[in-house]
Fold each of these.
Amino acid sequence: MLLDAPRRPLRLADAPTPEPGPGQILIQVNACGVCRTDLHVADGDLPDPKLPLVPGHEIVGTVAALGTGVSRFRAGDRVGVPWLGWTDGTCRYCRSGRENLCDEARFTGYDIDGGYAELTVADERFCFPLPEGYPDLQAAPLLCAGLIGYRALRMTGDAERLGIYGFGAAAHIITQVALHEGRRVFAFTRADDEESQSFARELGAEWAGDSMGPGPEELDAAIIFAPAGQLVPAALKATAKGGVVVCAGIHMSDIPSFSYDLLWGERVVRSVANLTREDGERFLALAPQVPVRTQVEAFDLENADAALERLRTGHIRGSAVILPGRPEEGTSK
Ligand SMILES: [Zn+2]
Ligand SMILES: [Zn+2]
């Protein structure tokens, strides 16, 4: 499925089999998660994507062929491909353990063709072996919603009372991890979004309610997954002194101005950008211990636009996942 230009529907196309270059692997895609970032790329919220582009950066697949010099994987291995697709390894960020901030980083399904396809290639150094016990469909959302959600959770330190704003794919995974770590979870959604609120309670949130109001008690930290800038002052208002508000999305509407009183008391507002390979290794080791269980809604490859539209309108419970196998192998939707 190709994005020819932002704000245009994806187009089903026949493309030649990609050739794995040195250090790259050719992957038969078994499943590819749909991330909110894919929506931001398709909607033109993020600048200068590769065009035409195969979106998708939560890829679960099987190694089909090896480029020269590949040493980590063999044909037939199951691999995961995340958002971080390449870094230069030489800039000041890469040299200080912050490759997520690399000036020259290239991202899967943005600068590099991704997983809304039957075949893709990836740099083996940025792929992950995946934990056994997760079928392909259930493993896909771990690769961005899980990894970047986990990085955001780490940024909250040891906060006990955790507010989660926006209850989509990342929230449904990170709630499980947070509870496993002994935290208490409060879910903030649109006031009338009873479906998301009941989903959050089912997953163990002790309260779910209106994101613009206060919770039942103060928060020690908040993570904002929804791309709505007005949530930043709302989350600050709900957070206790010394607490952090983590903005975990790649794109957000403008943050309205707010009184300094909301920040005063050593409150912190910060963003989380991308992931490091270390985040991935740590989270993929932790997920089966929790154990994180992902809830997914499956779509055939040619229905990728329908998956994006359901995500855009807030109708996905958990994660949407695309199954590029032939239709008779996949799940129709
Ligand atoms: Zn770098
Ligand atoms: Zn993502």
Note: The two ends are 16 Å apart (CA to CA).
Amino acid sequence: MPTRTERQAVSVNGVQYRWPDRPLVVVCIDGGDPAYFRQFLGDGAIPNIARFVRQGFSAIADGTMPSFTCPNNMSIITGTPASRHGISGNYYLDTATGKPVVMTGPELLRGDTILSRFADAGARVVSITAKDKLRKQLGKNLEIGKGHISFSSELAAKATLRENGIENVLELTGMAQPGMYSMELSLFVLEAGIRLLERSRPDLMYLSLTDWVQHKYAPEEAEAKRFYREIDARFGRLAELGATVVLTADHGMNDKSNAEGRPNVIWLQDILDERFGKGDTRVICPITDAFVGHHGALGGFVRVYCQGSATPRQVIEAIAGIDGVEQALDKANVCRLYDLPPDREGDVAVISRADVCIGGAQAEHDLTGLRGHRLRSHGGLSEARVPIVINRPLSDEYRLKEAGGTLKSYQLFDYALNGVALS
Ligand SMILES: [Zn+2]
């Protein structure tokens, strides 16, 4: 048997990845805006992450636009921008059928995942996600029967050997089934990862958390600090077990409420209906998912489809003057600027300012889940910067590479596998 470092590199979507010299654990802290690390590194609440930053590598990278969960997780796991992997939102309008579709099906994901290609090459691979909506895409082409594991903490109690490659997950972690709106949903992912690392030392683990805490609490709030203390302790444990630990986020998070605590919303469908008539344009909010209690489907990026007489140019002119709009771009420009797939883009893309969100028609958004707290959300440019922390230093070659340009979050596995200095 060849040793780990002697094994052949694995090619995924045109990039060669070195075989990990020790277990690699990548954690995507959903909604982990760089402001949280800044706050808690500043007040000493996250000593393990502080040590990683000191002894290893840390940077702020450009995430994928729009800054939503699905596009960014897929960028990380495929090592490609959205123009290649095709996942341009959590939700999109299938223009062939005229129907909006959740963008979570593995058949919508183009190219291979790094996990499945390493699994094919003989690595043992684990994918655990808080939100079940990500599970199938992350597990695309992963042959569960061959000892690989893929499950969500959202449906942990229902995990089966046949579907997930593991059962009795509650016993494994010693935790109760966590609720969908809880910090335990994320902690469960990390606990399961620790147990599996102790038990069977898989070669590659991808652990994806949920942004419930970040949607609800700003960095200066006590509950946010409590969450970061909890995850920091678990990152410390993963490192102690000998893993290369890589921390990142899918997107940031910003407060989008006014002085009265109500969401600062541009109801774009209502504005366009008034200007062009009902049914002429259609606004799609690609943040939409089952977690309405997080955000009420209000984010910083929407797509407008021209299905009547209004042209994209007229729509852009109608939108450009609205206070709180940062950019209104036609399809060609938004695809060129943000590396997006044209066949999954609208006619006009609209991005809001950090403190503002954009909705469709006011009557169609359920905001009951937001009662009692300020809306914090994401989707725009202001939430597209994400931290990358690795608990090992980079080689000289990668230090130079990083200094020479803007790091993209889809290069994460390249940095984690090819970029760390071998010790
Ligand atoms: Zn997210």
Note: The chain has a mean pLDDT of 94.
Amino acid sequence: MPEPHTLAISEIFGSAQGEGSRCGVPSIFIRLAGCRVRCPYCDTRKAWSDGKAMTIDEIAGEVLRLRKRSPQSQIVLTGGEPLEQDVTDLVAYLRQKKFFIAIETSGLYFRDLPIDWWTVSPKDVAGFRIHPRVIPEMDEVKLIVNRNLTLAVIRRITRRAAEIPVFLQPQFFNRSKYRQTLRFFEEIQQAGIKNVRLGFQLQALYGIR
Ligand code: SF4
């Protein structure tokens, strides 16, 4: 008998989406382990290496248990970098169960999957590269504000994704980083670049995950 297909999972938990256009939507987060991007400011470092091998049946059991408590939940595939693993079977299962499926990815990898909502967060350490096949899928972009995020980068990204919102996220959630983000937001407005929005984290306000 062949071994059942497993995925390395960091954690599965219920909460609400805290960022972006779908902020506040009840969500079941499936955090896949592993990420080769290695951002120095990563707030999910434990997901780089602590994955537990789980079969689709085991993941399904946990997801359905959480859905009983919050039946309207969407699924958020996150990481780590969720597209470093082959999530084809997992996505097929979630579709069959009629979940709305969102993904949070760096945009470096593409898999042709029936995902409803793509949040793409291109990273400075990867030169803000986005896989060309990810670009038409994108529903929103999230960018961490630091010294590597320049007006030229914002222009390049908004040119490739003209009609979708681009959220600016502070690198850390403290006053000085919020101020830095606000200053950059004002520069962007003065430069006449469209569709850029100030972002925040609902989970920091509510003290949830
Ligand atoms: S891409 Fe995301 S998960 Fe990976 S290191 Fe950067 S912030 Fe962390």
Note: The first helix runs from residue 56 to 69.
